[in-house]
Design a protein that fits this description.
Elements: E1 3-6, E2 12-15, E3 18-19, H1 25-36, H2 44-52, H3 60-77, E4 83-88, E5 91-96, H4 102-115, H5 119-130, H6 144-170, H7 174-187, H8 192-204, H9 208-226, H10 232-242, H11 278-289, E6 303-308, H12 315-325, E7 334-338, H13 351-361, H14 373-384, E8 390-396, H15 399-402, E9 413-418, H16 423-429, E10 432-435, H17 441-452, H18 454-459, H19 461-471, H20 475-487, H21 493-501, H22 506-509, H23 519-528, H24 532-541, E11 549-550, H25 551-558, H26 562-574, E12 579-582, E13 585-587, H27 590-602, H28 607-631, H29 656-679, H30 683-692, H31 694-699, H32 703-720, H33 723-739, H34 743-759, H35 763-780, H36 783-797, H37 803-819, H38 823-840, H39 847-859, H40 863-879, H41 883-899, H42 903-919, H43 923-934
Parallel strand pairs: 6-9, 6-10, 7-8, 8-9
Antiparallel strand pairs: 1-2, 2-3, 4-5, 11-13, 12-13
Length: 935
C-alpha cells in the first residue's frame, strides 16, 4: 500500500486512491504540523505551538499524545502505507517518502523546473507542480503558525505561476494563458510582474488597446494606493508597445497562437465562506480521475455528477468550489446556467433558452443556427464535441430538464445540482449521485467563525452553541444568522440566540428579507414542486412529534394503504425533504419540520386533528400488541383499548423478538407521542401508552423514561377522574420513585394507590400494589415489613384465577424468606412457583424463580446446584432481553464461582455485571461489584 498526503487544500490521506480516516480537525492539524517537516524531528513544544498557539488545553501533552497515538494507529492499520510516526529524543518525526506529500512534491517539481534546460520540459514540470494545489493550504486551520505558512506557500505558488508564464510567453503560448492571466491580475492587482505578463499577452493577441488600458489602470492603482510609479520593466514594456517594437512579436519558431474569440468562462464567483465538504469534493474529483483520461467515463461515456440535498444545504457552493479548484482541467472553457428549477420567484428555465444561450457562448454563427429546437441541441453537442469542457447545470428541476443539455462527447464533464435526486440519470446515463448532509459541529463552528471572527464567537460560546443548535448544520441558516449578527456588530449574540429559541418564530428569525436568502422561500419552492398527494403527506409529517417516523406510522397518519404511503415517502425522499436513515424510517431536518408544521397549522378544517388521532392510535394499539407478546396476557390492569379510528392500521409484531425490535426502534417516538397526547387532552391514551411500556422499560432498565411516562400518566388520570386508571398511575409512579431511591415518596404514592383499589373493591389491583409495597420495604431495609406485604399480596392472588400471578408472588414470598435466613420456607415457596410456571406460564416466566432457587442453594452451601439454577436463569433473561435481571444474576453467579474456587470465572461474571450496571446507571450495585473485583 502507498499513501499520498495532501495539505495544499484540505488535509487528507489517501491510501491506494481511497481516503483514510484521520480524525477531527485538531488531529488533522497535528498530522499537518508533522508533514510540513516530514523526515525531521518536531519537538512537543513546537507541535503544541503549531496546533494550539496560545490556546493550549489544560492537559495539552496528554491530548497531543492521544492524537499522535491515533494517527500512528491509523497508519499501522493500513500496513504503514509507506509512512510511520516515530518518537525520538527530541520529539516526533513523520518518516515518509517526501514525494508522497504534495507540499514537498510541489517544491521539488518547482526546483526541477527552474533548473531544466528544455523550456517545454520546464513548463510541464511547473504544470505538474501547480496541479497539486486543490485549494487554500491547510484548509480550516487558523493558528498563527499555519496562517503564516499559508501566506508563504501562496506566495510560492504565485512565483511558480509567474515563472511558468514567462516560459510560455517566450514559447508564443500567450493564447493559452490569457484567461488565467486575467483572473490572476484581478486577484493580485498590485503585482507588476503579473501585470506585465497580461499586458504582453493581450498585445500579442491583437488587443493592443486592452493591453494599454490595463497598463493605465495598474499605473493609477499604484499611484493612488502606494504613491509610486510602475517599475522600470513595466514602463519599458509600455513604451515598446507604443512604438510597436517588433521584438514583442511571438517567436518565429512557433506560429503565433491567437485567441480572437474568448473561451467561455461562465462560472460565477466561488463562495467566499466555504468550509468542510472534503469527502464530497473528493467524490467529485474521483469521478473525474476515474474517467479514462480525456476519453470520459467508463466505456467512453460522459462523466456526470449530480449533487443533491434540501434547499439551503450548500449544493451550489460545493459545485462552484469544486469547479473553480478544477477549472484548469477544462482548458476549453466552462459553461454555467441557473436552471431555476426551485426558484422561489421565477419559473424553471426552458431548455430551449438554455441551449440558445450556450450556442452564443460557444460563438456559433448566428446565421447558421437552425430554428428547430432539436436541431439547435444537435448543434450545441457538435460544438462541444472533442472539447475538454465543464458544463455546470445549477438548480435543476428534474431529469427531463437536464437531458437535452447533456453533451454526447466523453471529453466533457457535467456537474448538476438539484433538490431532486435525479435517480433516472443514474439508470440512463450512469450519473454519480453526491448527497449532501448537514455540516458537522466543527464545520458549522468554523463557518460561523469565518463570518463573525474568532473574538466575537469566543466571547459568547453559549450563545454561539444555541445558534448552531437551531441552525442544525444547514449552511444557508448559518449564513443568515451570521448576516443578521454582522448587521449589528455591537449586539450580543445572545439576543439573536433568544430569538431562535422560540420555535414558532424561528423561520421568521432566519429571514433577512431576500428571497435568495430565505429558508421559508427555499422550502416553499420544494413543496410547490411536489405532486398534490406528496405535498399533503409532507404537511402531515410536520405534525408527527417523534425524531423520525416509520412508513407504517406515516401510512396511518395519512390514512393511506402502506404501499401508497411508501410511494409518497419515496417522492419526498427524492426531493430531499425527508431522509431514510435506516430502512423504512424517515426523518426531516429540524427546520424543514418547522416549515411543514407551519403549513399544517395554516390548513383549515379538522384534517390535522384527525391525522394526529390516527397517529396516536397507531402507537397505542401497536404498543399494546407488542407488550402482549412480551408479557403475555398477565400484565396487571389490562388497558382495555377501544378500536382504532378509521384509517389507522396498527401493526401486530410476529413474535416477542419482533416486539422488542419495534420497541427499540420506536421508544423515542412513543415518549413524544405520549407527551403530545397529554398536551392535546387525549388522557386515556397517555396512561395506555405508559401501561404498554412497562415490560419493555423495566426489562431494558429505562428508569428515567419509566419515571417520566408514569408522571405524565398520573397527570392524565387525575384530569380524567376514573379511579381505576388513577390507582394504576399512583402504583406505577410509586414503583418508579422507589427505583430512584425516593422511598418516602414511593410509599406515599403506593398508599394512595392501595386506598383507591380498596375503595373500588379491586382485588387484583390490591394484590399488585401490595406486591410492590413488599419490594419497596425490602429496598428500604425492612425485610419483616416486606414479607408482611408479600404474604398479604399472595393471599389476594390466591383469590384470583391467574396461576402466573400466583407463581410470581410465591417466588416473591420465597425470596423474602431467604433474605430473613428462612431457607426451608424459601425453597418451598420457590419450588411451588417453579411448578406453576412449568404448568401455566412460559419458559421466560420461570427465570426469576430459578434465580431465587440459585440464591437459596448458594446460601445453604449447595454451590453446584446454585450454579445450575443461575445459568438457567441467565440464559432465559438474555433470551428475552431482560438486562436488569441479567445483571443481578451475573453478580450472584460470580459469588457462587468465587465460593467454589473459580476466581477467573467469578471475575468474568463480575466484569459482565459491572458493565451492565454502568450502562443502566445503577451506581450502588456497580460500586459493590467493583469492590469485589478489587478484593
Amino acid at each position: 500500500m502507498t499513501a499520498q498526503f495532501t495539505v495544499l487544500g484540505d488535509i487528507a490521506v489517501r491510501v491506494d486512491g481511497r481516503p483514510l480516516g484521520i480524525g477531527h480537525m485538531r488531529q488533522r492539524c497535528v498530522l499537518a504540523a508533522l508533514l510540513v517537516d516530514a523526515n525531521r524531528t518536531v519537538s512537543v513544544d513546537q507541535l503544541a505551538d503549531r496546533v494550539w498557539a496560545d490556546r493550549l488545553p489544560q492537559r495539552f501533552r496528554s491530548t497531543l499524545y492521544s492524537y499522535l497515538s491515533r494517527l500512528r494507529q491509523a497508519l499501522i492499520l493500513v500496513g504503514g502505507a509507506g509512512a510511520r510516526i516515530e518518537k525520538g529524543p527530541g520529539g516526533y518525526q513523520l518518516t515518509v517518502d517526501a514525494s508522497a506529500v504534495d507540499l514537498h512534491r510541489f517544491r521539488h517539481l518547482v526546483a526541477q523546473a527552474r533548473t531544466a534546460e528544455d523550456g517545454e520540459r520546464a513548463v510541464a514540470l511547473f504544470e505538474e507542480a501547480l496541479d497539486l494545489w486543490r485549494a487554500e493550504p491547510f484548509a480550516t486551520l487558523d493558528t498563527p503558525w499555519f496562517s503564516a505558512l499559508r501566506e508563504t506557500l501562496v506566495r510560492e505558488r504565485l512565483a511558480a505561476e509567474l515563472d511558468r508564464n514567462d516560459l510560455m510567453l517566450r514559447q508564443g503560448r500567450h493564447g493559452e494563458l490569457l484567461a488565467e492571466l486575467t483572473a490572476r491580475a484581478e486577484a493580485h492587482p498590485m503585482d507588476e510582474r503579473l501585470a506585465g505578463q497580461l499586458v504582453l499577452g493581450l498585445y500579442r493577441s491583437g488587443r493592443a488597446a486592452d493591453a494599454l488600458g490595463h497598463y493605465r489602470r495598474t499605473r493609477e492603482r499604484l499611484a493612488g494606493e502606494l504613491g509610486v510609479d510602475p517599475g522600470a520593466p513595466l514602463r519599458e514594456l509600455h513604451q515598446r508597445i507604443l512604438t510597436a517594437d517588433p521584438s514583442l512579436d511571438p517567436p518565429h519558431s512557433l506560429p503565433a497562437v491567437t485567441s480572437p474569440l474568448p473561451v467561455p468562462r461562465q462560472l460565477p464567483a466561488p463562495p467566499g465562506m466555504f468550509t468542510g465538504r472534503a469527502k464530497e469534493l473528493d467524490q467529485l474529483t474521483e469521478a473525474l480521475d476515474g474517467s479514462a483520461g480525456a476519453g470520459g467515463g467508463p466505456g467512453g461515456t460522459v462523466v456526470i455528477s449530480a449533487i443533491g440535498g434540501i434547499g439551503g444545504i450548500g449544493k451550489t457552493w460545493l459545485a462552484l468550489r469544486w469547479a473553480h479548484e478544477n477549472a484548469h482541467r477544462f482548458p476549453d472553457g466552462q459553461l454555467y446556467v441557473n436552471l431555476r428549477g426551485f426558484d422561489p420567484a421565477e419559473q424553471p428555465m426552458p431548455t430551449a433558452i438554455v441551449v440558445r444561450a450556450f450556442l452564443d457562448a460557444l460563438h456559433a454563427d448566428p446565421d447558421s443556427i437552425p430554428a428547430d429546437p432539436d436541431a439547435q441541441t444537435a448543434l450545441y453537442r457538435s460544438l462541444v464535441a472533442g472539447r475538454r469542457m465543464l458544463i455546470l447545470l445549477d438548480d435543476a428541476r428534474d431529469a427531463d430538464q437536464v437531458r437535452p443539455l447533456l453533451p454526447g462527447s466523453p471529453s466533457c464533464t457535467v456537474l448538476i445540482t438539484s433538490r431532486s435526486r435525479l435517480a433516472a440519470l443514474v439508470a440512463t446515463h450512469g450519473a454519480q449521485l453526491v448527497a449532501l448532509d448537514v455540516l458537522g459541529r466543527d464545520e458549522a463552528h468554523h463557518l460561523l467563525v469565518s463570518h463573525l471572527g474568532v473574538p466575537r464567537v469566543a466571547a459568547e460560546p453559549e450563545a454561539a452553541t444555541v445558534l448552531m443548535d437551531h441552525c442544525a448544520g444547514l449552511p444557508l441558516a448559518l449564513g443568515i444568522v451570521a448576516a443578521r449578527a454582522a448587521t449589528h456588530p455591537d449586539f450580543p449574540l445572545a439576543v439573536l440566540a433568544a430569538e431562535l429559541n422560540q420555535a414558532a418564530d424561528r423561520l421568521d428569525a432566519l429571514d433577512i428579507g431576500d428571497l435568495t436568502a430565505s429558508l421559508r422561500a427555499a422550502f416553499a419552492a420544494s413543496h410547490r414542486a411536489l405532486t398534490s398527494p406528496a405535498g399533503t403527506m409532507f404537511v402531515l409529517l410536520g405534525l408527527a412529534p417523534g425524531p423520525d417516523i416509520s412508513f407504517a406510522a406515516a401510512a396511518s397518519l395519512a390514512a393511506l394503504p402502506p404501499a401508497r404511503a411508501r410511494a409518497l415517502l419515496t417522492e419526498l425522499e427524492s426531493a430531499h425533504l425527508v431522509r431514510q436513515d435506516s430502512p423504512g424510517r424517515y426523518r426531516m431536518h429540524d427546520l424543514v419540520r418547522l416549515y411543514a408544521a407551519e403549513l399544517a397549522h395554516q390548513q383549515p378544517g379538522q384534517g390535522s386533528e384527525a391525522a394526529l388521532t390516527r397517529l396516536v392510535d397507531f402507537y397505542v394499539h401497536t404498543a399494546y400488541a407488542a407488550n402482549r407478546l412480551l408479557d403475555g396476557p398477565n400484565t396487571p390492569f389490562d388497558a382495555r383499548l377501544q378500536s382504532p379510528v378509521p384509517g389507522c392500521s396498527p401493526l401486530i409484531p410476529a413474535d416477542a423478538a419482533a416486539a422488542l425490535r419495534w420497541f427499540d426502534e420506536e421508544h423515542a417516538c412513543l415518549l413524544t407521542v405520549q407527551s403530545l397526547a397529554l398536551a392535546t387532552g387525549r388522557h386515556p391514551q397517555v396512561w395506555q401508552l405508559a401501561w404498554s411500556l412497562i415490560s419493555y422499560q423495566q426489562g431494558g432498565y429505562h428508569l428515567r423514561e419509566y419515571l417520566t411516562v408514569w408522571r405524565a400518566a398520573l397527570t392524565a388520570t387525575e384530569r380524567q377522574g376514573d379511579p381505576t386508571p388513577r390507582a394504576l398511575a399512583h402504583w406505577r409512579y410509586g414503583h418508579a420513585r422507589s427505583l430512584t431511591g425516593d422511598y418516602g415518596e414511593a410509599l406515599d404514592q403506593l398508599g394512595l394507590a392501595l386506598t383507591l383499589a380498596e375503595r373500588t373493591d379491586d382485588t387484583a389491583g390490591q394484590a399488585h400494589i401490595c406486591r410492590t409495597l413488599g419490594r419497596v420495604w425490602e429496598q428500604y431495609g425492612d425485610d419483616e415489613r416486606a414479607l408482611e406485604y408479600a404474604l398479604r399480596a399472595l393471599a389476594l392472588y390466591l383469590q384470583l384465577d391467574n396461576p402466573v400471578w400466583q407463581a410470581n408472588q410465591l417466588n416473591a414470598v420465597g425470596w423474602m424468606h431467604a433474605q430473613l435466613g428462612r431457607y426451608p420456607q424459601a425453597r418451598t415457596h420457590c419450588d411451588r412457583a417453579l411448578r406453576l410456571y412449568s404448568e401455566h406460564g412460559r419458559p421466560a416466566d420461570a427465570a426469576s424463580a430459578l434465580d431465587s432457587l440459585g440464591y437459596i442453594a448458594h446460601h445453604t452451601g449447595q454451590h453446584a446446584q446454585a450454579l445450575e439454577y443461575y445459568q438457567q436463569a441467565l440464559a432465559l433473561f438474555r433470551e428475552h432481553a431482560d438486562s436488569s435481571n441479567e445483571a443481578d444474576t451475573l453478580a450472584n453467579l460470580a459469588e457462587t464461582h468465587h465460593a467454589m474456587g473459580h476466581p477467573a470465572l467469578a471475575r468474568e461474571a463480575w466484569q459482565q455485571a459491572l458493565t451492565l450496571y454502568r450502562v443502566q446507571n445503577r451506581t450502588a450495585q456497580a460500586e459493590q461489584v467493583l469492590a469485589r473485583l478489587r478484593a
